[in-house]
Amino acid sequence: MNAQAQLTNLETPILLNHCQRRELSAFEEFVNRFQKPVFSIIYRFCRDIAMTEEFSTQVFLTAWERLARANLQNSVSPFPWLMSIVFEQLQVWEHSAAKDIPADGNRVESIGHRLDQLRLEDRYVLLLRLTLSFSYDEIAEAMSWTRPMVKASLHWSRCELKNCLLPKIGSVKAI
Predict the structure, then answer these.
(1) What domains, with CATH codes, occur in the chain?
(2) Burial of residue 156, with CB atoms counted within 10 A of its CB: 0-12 exposed, 13-18 middle, 19 or more buried
(3) Nearest Cα to Cα of residue 83 among 61, 59, 112, 57
(4) Has residue 97 got a pLDDT over 60?
(5) So what's the pLDDT on residue 36?
(6) CA-CA distance, 34 to 141, in Å (whole number)?
(7) Predicted structure pTM score
C-alpha cells in the first residue's frame, strides 16, 4: 500500500498529528476530506464558482499556516476549527468592496436577498446548522460563542426568513 493510501485510512486525530508535523501529504489528505463541505458553505455566500474556489484555497492556506500551533489534540474533528477560519475569511470578504453576488432567479433571489440582509454571523450560524448539520456545541466552538448565543441567533434568523417567505407561500410551520 502506498503512502497516500495509508493516509486515506488514518483516523482524523492521527491525520491531524501528521499535519501538525508539517507533512505535506497528510495535509493533502486533510484538504481532500474537508474541501467539499468548506466549498459548499462558501458557495452559499459567494454564489460564484471561481470566487468560491479562490476563497476555499485561501481558507486551506490559512489552515496550513495555523495547524502547527492549533490546539487540536483533544478534538475528535477539526471541523469546528476549520469553520472558524471560514468565518474569519467571510468577515474579511463581507467588508471588501469586491463583493458582487449574482442573482439566480426570483425565488432564490428573494431568499438569498433576505439571507444577505441578516448579519454575517447569523447567516453563518444558520448555514452551519441547516447545511452541515452542526450541533449547537459545534457551532458555539466554531464561532467562539456560548450555546445560548447560538440558539438565539438561530431563532432570530429563522424568524426573519419565515417573515420573508410567508407573503410568498402562505403559512409556514417550520423552517
Answers:
(1) 1-102 (1.10.1740.10), 103-175 (1.10.10.10)
(2) middle
(3) 59
(4) no
(5) 93
(6) 17
(7) 0.65
Block residue for cell numbers 434568523? 157
Average pLDDT, the chain: 80
Output the nine-digit C-alpha cell for 156: 432570530
- CA distances for 17 relative to 21, 36, 91, 144, angstroms: 6, 22, 29, 23
Q: Is 145 exposed, middle or buried (0-12, 13-18, 19+ CB in 10 A)?
A: middle
Is-contact 19 30, C-beta < 8 A?
Answer: yes
**Contact (CB, 8 A) for 52 and 102:** no
Q: Say if residue 59's pLDDT is above 70.
A: yes
Burial class (CB in 10 A: 0-12, 13-18, 19+), 123: buried
**pLDDT: is 5 or 25 the higher one?**
25
The residue behind cell 438565539 is: 152
Q: Is 172 helix (H, G, I), strand (E, B) or coil?
A: coil
Q: Is the pLDDT of residue 88 over 50?
A: yes
